[in-house]
Amino acid sequence: MVVLELDRLSCHFELTPGFVDRVIKRKPPSYIKAVERLSIAIGEKEILGIAGESGCGKSTTCSMVSGLLDPTEGDIRFRGKSILGLRGDAIKDYRRSVQMIFQDPYESLNPRFRTVDIVAEGPRALELWDANEIEQRSLAMLDAVGLPSGKYAERFPHELSGGERQRVGIASALVMEPEVIIADEPLSMLDVSIRAGILDLLREMQAERGFSSLYVSHDLSILGNVADRLLIMYLGQAMEIGPAEEVIRNPKHPYTRALIGAVPIPDPRSRRAIPNIRGDISKPIDPPPGCRFAPRCPYADASCSNTFIEMETGAGTLHQAACHRLAEIDNAGS
Amino acid sequence: MSSSRTSQRFRKLRLALREHYRIINSNKLSQFGFWVIILFTLVAIFAPWIAPHDPWEMTYDSNGNFASLRPPSWEFPMGTTHLGYDLFSQLILATRTTLLIGVVSGFISIVIGANVGLIAGYYGGKIDEVLMRITDILYGMPFLPFIIVLIALFGRQLEFIILAIVLIIWRTSARVIRAQAMSIKQRQYIQMAKARGASDLRIIYRHILPNVLPLLLLYAAFNIAWSIITEASASFLGFGDGETVSWGGMLYELWLSGKTRVAWWWFASPSVCIILLVTSLVFVSRAYEEVANPRLRKR
Question: Which residue has the higher pLDDT, B51 or A188?
Answer without folding.
Answer: A188
